[in-house]
Structure formats: C-alpha cells, structure tokens
C-alpha cells in the first residue's frame, strides 16, 4: 500500500513539474510573440497572471466541450494581466 501511495505522489509531483515547465515555455513564447519585456520585479507577477489565464482558458475549453458555453478563449496580448487589471481595462470609466 505504501508503495502505491509513494508512486502516485511521485507521478503527481512529476506532472506538476512538467506542467510548470510547459507554462514557463508558453510564457517565454508569449513574451516573444507580443514583444513583452518586464523588470525583474515584475516578471514573476506577470508569469503568475499568465498561469491564471492558462487555467481560465482550460476551464473554458472544458465548459465548451460540455456545451456550457458557446465560445472558446485563447492567449492574446492581455494574457499577462491580473483579473483586476483586465476588469479595469474593459469596464473602467470611459471619457465621452
């Protein structure tokens, strides 16, 4: 029993590491494609925002597959924004 639990834990840890590497690689591609440059202090925050966006996109794909939504989402130039930044950008007050 202990062996099976250990193996499952190691597999889960491996999947988490591979997923993080994949996220990092996608983030590096994203930065190149959209000519994004960050300060050292900002890099980690933008990467976290990007990961949150990837998670949101995956959730949307699952909902689309189940017929719960009628649209799909993907990476664009705003994928490094936080939810607050996105909301402010799209729902903020606009001058007449």
From TrEMBL:
Gene3D superfamilies reported in the protein's UniProt record: 1.10.287.2250
Q: Does the keyword DNA repair apply?
A: no
Question: Per its UniProt entry, which superkingdom is the organism in?
Answer: Eukaryota
- Tell me yes or no: is Signal among this UniProt entry's keywords: yes
Q: Which Pfam families match?
A: Inhibitor_I29
**Leader sequence residues:** 1-20
Coiled-coil regions in this chain? none
Question: Which residues belong to any copy of the Cathepsin propeptide inhibitor domain?
Answer: 27-86
The alphabetized UniProt keywords are: Signal
**Under which name does UniProt file this protein?**
Cathepsin propeptide inhibitor domain-containing protein
Q: What is the species of this protein? A: Psylliodes chrysocephalus
């Amino acid at each position: 029993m202990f062996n099976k639990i250990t193996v499952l834990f190691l597999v889960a840890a491996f999947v988490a590491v591979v997923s993080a590497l994949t996220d990092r690689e996608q983030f590096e591609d994203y930065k190149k494609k959209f000519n994004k440059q960050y300060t050292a202090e900002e890099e980690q925050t933008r990467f976290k925002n990007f990961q949150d966006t990837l998670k949101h996109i995956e959730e949307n794909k699952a909902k689309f597959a189940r017929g719960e939504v009628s649209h799909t989402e993907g990476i664009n130039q705003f994928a490094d924004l936080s939810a607050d930044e996105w909301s402010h950008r799209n729902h903020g007050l606009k001058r007449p």
